[in-house]
Amino acid sequence: MKTLCLGIETSCDDTSLCLLEHENGTSSILSFKTFSQETILREWGGVVPEIASRNHLEKLLPLLKQVFEDAQRSIDELKLISVTTHPGLLGPLLTGLNMAKTLALFTKASIVPANHLMAHLEAIGLTQGYNSYPYLGVLVSGGHTLFAKVTGPLEMEILGTTLDDAAGEAFDKGGKLLGLGYPAGRIIDLLAGYGNKEAISFPIGLKDKKTANLSYSGVKTQLRNYLEKNPELILTPDQRDLILKDPSVASQEFKDVCASYQHAIVNAIILKLKMAFELNDLKELPIVVGGGVACNRYLRIRLKENFKNVSVVEPKYCTDNGAMIAHYGCLLQELAIPFPKCLGLDARDRIISKRGEKENQLVLN
Known about the structure:
With about 375 residues, this protein is of the alpha/beta class. The chain has 12 helices and 12 strands.
């Protein structure tokens, strides 16, 4: 039986909706629309929750009308709504959730509360039909960097995670130090392709520790120290605008800094992923990589050079998006909250709880 599902993603700064049909484990996207707040938030140097929330409110209804019109489907046909409820910024989360509950009120559709960390990894099923468990999930995004043994759509055992900033934060904060503004991951990746990754030796946090945990505080400090000694490398707003239009105008030294900095961030992931395999005796588990930083070209290359059986989510489904939320909700539709009980749903923080020395379980309910 086919299920028409709407996915709603508003956990941070992207407003994204997707309408898809799901049947026998396969999702077919009918319409998928995203509004990015990058330009709006760039002048603030990052995400401001109140600004993000207000922009979600402005964009949700126009995007909703557009996805149904493009799919040539009626809202009365909607049977399932999947909406991100955790983790994320509370204000943005509530905007999406309130839309989901309003739609349920009119259509009597059931709602699936979606954990968008799991949705990032399960997004592999949008293009590769991946449904085999267990696998080793590698989640690399702006807010999270972790390795987990995934044994089902609701079961994630954390094997290692960042102790401070995530990889995406390291890229963005490094970009801010360099004068590249926000967000910086994409432009650093582009500039690094023209630089020498061996030009500067940036540190890898916890390199000599027998743990799969990561730390990016040291590499950011080293970059700050390097720029204090070489202040001419910090871009002015005019220089930044020129480089954003034409990366080739950046100096070779600036490109080398980007390449070396990116090399250190990616090397940490490779090193600690190897440690996760070693410490947990995972042998030949397949690897699934998702999250916004999974778009990074150098990371994709290095992962496939160092590990067998690596599947990476397609770039268009890596960042926070409604397609992954809709697909993930369909995988859990048997657990959907029926109308009218779903109207009591709220956005709540879910935590990673420690159970014993080695076992960390992600709490999803």
